[in-house]
## 1
Amino acid sequence: MMKALLPLLPLFAMTVASALADGETQRPELSLPRTAEYDYDVPEPGTYTLPVLKPAADGAVLGRDGKPVRLHELAEGRITILSFIYTRCTDPRACLRASGTLKHLQQLTLAEPALATNVLLLTLSFDPGHDTPEVMSRYGNVFNRKQGGADWLFLTTENRDQLAPLLDRYGQQVDRAKPGSAGGPYTHPLRVYLIDGQKRIRNIYSYGLLDPRLVMTDVRTLLMEAATPKITASK
Amino acid sequence: MSRRSLLAVLILASITITSSPLLADETCVSPYMTRIEGQEEYVYVWTLGVEGLGDGSDKLVTVDVNPKSSAYGKIINSHSVGGRHEAHHGGFTDDRKQFWAAALDGSKIFVFDVRSQPSGPRYVKTIADLPAKSGGATGPHGAFALPGRMLIPCLSNSKDQGGRTALVEYSNEGDYLATHWMPTKSNSGGAAGAEFADGYGYDARVLPRKNVMLSSSFTGAANYMRPFGELVQDAAAMKNFGQTMTLWDFHTRKPKKVFQVPGAPLEVRWAWAPKHNYAFTATALASKLWLVYEDAKGEWQAKEVAHIGGEKGVLPVDISLSADDRTLFVSGFGDGKCRVFDVSDPHQPKQIHEQAVGRQVNMVSQSWDGKRLYFTSSLLANWDKQGEDNEQFLRAYEWNGRELKPTFSVDFAKEKLGRPHAMNFGSSKLYN
């Protein structure tokens, strides 16, 4: 299904870009209020550039059904928002925050089915010893109830050996917390990655940046970028 | 609680939780890093080499500052980078795995691994392509952590060695990402106050919850590499100092407003409390304390709020704001004193204490709990004082809320190390 839609991505992106330029499309994210944490107005999509930070690493992961699959296969050319979490995290400012924000992003895509088909949400555990596919499936059921919007997949890995290269290449730091730590057995910086259709990391959101309005604006910026005709050398 | 209720709470939490101290670091570094909450164990001192002193090279010196350690107050490691490059400031990456030590002369950034062995940072590599990749920005002043990348505020340019310069971004892996030139009158990027824009740069720091970044301005290589005594006699050259601060839209990296702040505004220190939408800076040449703040109408303003020192000024070169936003420490290179201001009312700072630190003093850094402060002595190789006044030290103090009391001192000249400049804290407890 998704592969069948891929050729339509540039067309969709051009449509979004055109509609935004004409002011015809409402951006659902603009209905969200400014908060104490995100106390600013978000910029217009396409009025800024997102540099390529580095290639988004590929690697083997396990889906909710426990079957192995590679990250790049899942993306299928879609703009991907990847969040590293572990389900035992009890710090509301960390993994729960990340998953709550992804839920918010999914809801924002509800009103735009065409946009939703070009966005993929991924939640990947860095605690494979505990977060089995079954655990991730239950975790996913809390957040991702059937209601439409962008696809959201909940992933884990076979073991730490399979996980380590992914953490290293994405730059996701994970440390063991002090025994009895209130936030859970691990400490880690909150990181959510924005990956474009060419499998490149274009932004990294952390504390203070994981604003659903801002992330959605970045997604629209990438879609507009994909719709912009490239100037060829022959011209 | 039902799953639906739990989900509602989580989503609400995702948009309503206010900023927490966990967002912060020990008082004056990037809010995107994990901070050292308790006792720091090490102070990494980025040190300028001095010809004929020891190996003569710039080096990263590690001092043990854990009072429980048998090596308390002692140098426990030193790594020379070879040659003299005008070592200046630096910063950790957001994961605090690396320390990037910036050097003005030659525009190099020396990268150290501080995670593997915090007591002895390991040299990793040198980033030497900044002028070429950035389109001519030179003089990397420091390194400010952003998620997955580093922001490098520069001081000069390769075209005329003047003060026209840029903010440059690199990935944590050391790959060049982007250049953002400081606004000028002819290329202001649509910023308000474009008539003041001078294109100069120095420090740049972000207030995430307002999506703003504030930059300050100093001078170009033609001035900062010149002997100070000679420079101050050159009236034309003395006009080539920054007179502005620029407020940026952080996400788009576009300048929003240029403020006229005469006299070389240097370090930028944002307040920490959730509703404290303001930052301090000190103007080195005018000896003034300035406040950049959001007013009741949501407009950003800048105003002078205090004079520092006597009539002649004291060349205030570094400031450190306490984590509770109540106390500001100001080091004056001119008279070697630290002045402490009560800034509970940021619009009306009041000096509450004064402490002679040495014959010259430059940087001041404090622990997150505000109990310990560290000072170093060197400003720039060619601007440091001469003869007996050229003391080179790291000095530690305790702050009890009323006065600074000395705890230990390391003589960097006697130890044949060089001129100590920037200080950053390390701890093995950050990593498990």
Note: The longest strand of chain B covers residues 149-157.
## 2
Amino acid sequence: LSRDLFGPIEPRRGRAVRSPLVPGQGGWRQQEAPDESLSVSAVNGLAKQIIEGSIPPLRVHGEVTGWKRYGSGHCYFCLRDADAQLRAVMFRADAARLPTDPEEGMQVRTLGTVTLYEKRGEYQFVVRELEGIGVGGLWRLAFERLRLRLEAEGLLAAERKLPIPEHPAVVGVVTSPVGAVLQDILNVVSRRAPWTRVVLSPAKVQGEGAAEDIARALDRLVEAGVADVIIIGRGGGSAEDLWAFNEECVARAIARCPVPVISAVGHETDYTIADLVADLRAPTPSAAAEHAVPDRHAIAARLNATTARVTNALRRKVTQPLAEVATREGRLAARVQALHRARARELHHLSATLDALSPLSALRRGYAVPLADGGRVLRRRADFEPSDGFTLRVADGLIDCAVTGTRAADDGENR
Amino acid sequence: MTKQVPLEQRLRRLEEISQALESDDVELEDALALFAEGVENVRGAREILATAELRIERLIEDARGEPVLEPLTGAQS
């Protein structure tokens, strides 16, 4: 063994180590132990070089035990099966991508590399990717954990749901400025209610920082104070693509939003935390837009109905007093008529009386009136001159008479 | 322009007018005024319904971080 080989070792990742010590390269066991003594560091450095240089990235499955996430963001745990245990670490950058921490005893599948930590002389498995085995895996677990927490806070309660306004003037949209979602929403709104204003608050809807971006876009829309209703969503994708809508900051932004929120995330079968917190969950962005704005035809029909209603109401209002006038008029006429009849009866009676008083009626009863020439009434014996004639007025004519004599009557009326 | 009254307000007012007219305690003169107002609201609402152009804006932040609306064009079908 030459000194050069053990000389200052710069452990370099990925470099294949060519060494007579590599097993299989033959016969070193038979060789005598070298005279030279090595430092501990040198041994660990050599072991590191061998391990890291010869073991390619591996997929390892096993049960998680002793998971611990430190303040630094690094996570330490062990992977184990019935017979063995493997120390593992997941550094911050990779651990941050996990939807949640695995539970104790959870079966996981990992991808990583075996490394040696020289300070301790221990080897460990550095995990780059970790997913739960089973339905939904870690995503499912994270979803359930957050759902339970939000539920415990009452943020999913039905009483918290705000009613969706019937006729919003402005519809806010939180989604990606590119992509089909915005276009679908615009198509529906422009077909049903083209007088509506649509305000887009653009957000990154997947990838690193998407959740924070969505929450911020929603807050900004609230701050601007323009929207009457807000649609929040994105198109379909994998569980990981939709993940931003399962994050707590999005859920909280929706929960604190004073404007009604309609969620439309992924496809009809996808349920996210955002859907649970939203005031209304729509299966697709188009459906969300249909819930958000009314249909112009429905409003037109309603306007027609209202016009008829108002016209009828007014007609009733006008005809009712007219009918009342007619009734009063009728009553008045009847009274006038009654009065009239009474007067007529009175008149008749009066005329009868007058008739009775008329001299003609006396004549009809047989009385006669003697008249001198010139029409003077002859009332006394002295008015009659024996030589003169006179005329007698009877009911139906005049009688020429001559005086043949006069005498006093027996009734004592005259002297 | 009379068009500035939003649709929702017009529809709400129309509902109030309908109910008022259908109630018994409105005098004829008031009823006539309400009717005229109703006709005006129906006309205004129909005018809004006839709108053809969707208005689309984008909410962005200005240099001071204040929200600003800018018209969004090219996104409409």
Note: The mean pLDDT of chain B is 82.
## 3
Amino acid sequence: MKKRNILFLLIGILFGTTLMKTDAVSWFRMQEMFRFQGFQMFGIFMTAIPTAALSIFILRKLKIKTLDGEPIHIKKKEFNWGYIYGSILFGIGWGLTGACPGPIYVQIGSGVSIAIVTLLSALAGTWVYSYLKPRLPH
Amino acid sequence: MCLPANIPFLKYNWKNQSWNLFFAAGLLIGGFVGGVLLHPVNPMPLSPATLQSLNVLGISKQPGILPVEIFSWVNLLTWQHLIIVVGGGFLVGFGTRYAGGCTSGHGIAGLSTMQWPSLVAVVLFFASGILTANFILPLLLK
């Protein structure tokens, strides 16, 4: 197994364990957040965003290179209308299933077999998007 | 992936992208580590107000991360529950691809690098989630 793949596996395990232990994969916790009845999810975001910003600051300051030895370049996101339509659709799915894409895998790993249905549906959604992409407004 | 149809968006060198699969495998293992190996003795309590709101909708907090009243093989086969699980799952996949990112990609990575398109996306999917959880979900669970 390539070094890169082992690293991604380890980062996945770390991220998955964190999502699980912080309850960020819990449907109940998501309902709590969407009803503004608890602080937990907001606390997670308010910790994660500055931590990510600090990590990127350190990566840049120390001029850390990628695995291939190239300078790290974070692509600027180019706005298109897909951001609007896609986000609204994703929000509906998020409110119903309580899951974003990553947490679906974590839910399955934690032993909830029914989340496989969520995963297959999400994969179908990805496929249909790819199929319709040339005809959708962006 | 060996999927039918000639779709340009899905034509990429998947060997170069295979790290994605390792990351997904890591997430699966992470769920096992966090949910099974490090299973909490005392789960973090949910807000009483949320328990109350969900109770009204016929959902009781069981141990675990998903309500068995909706997310279980026995209870899946009603049209309302299929809309929630299959329809919701479909929109998660479709929407995040369309929007070019999700809670991690836009919410954490995008916001932490101060990209305004990500802020637009975050505001919209959060607003859409709020409306769905408060107004659409209760209609489906009635």
Note: The CA atoms of residues 82 and 137 of chain A lie 7 Å apart.
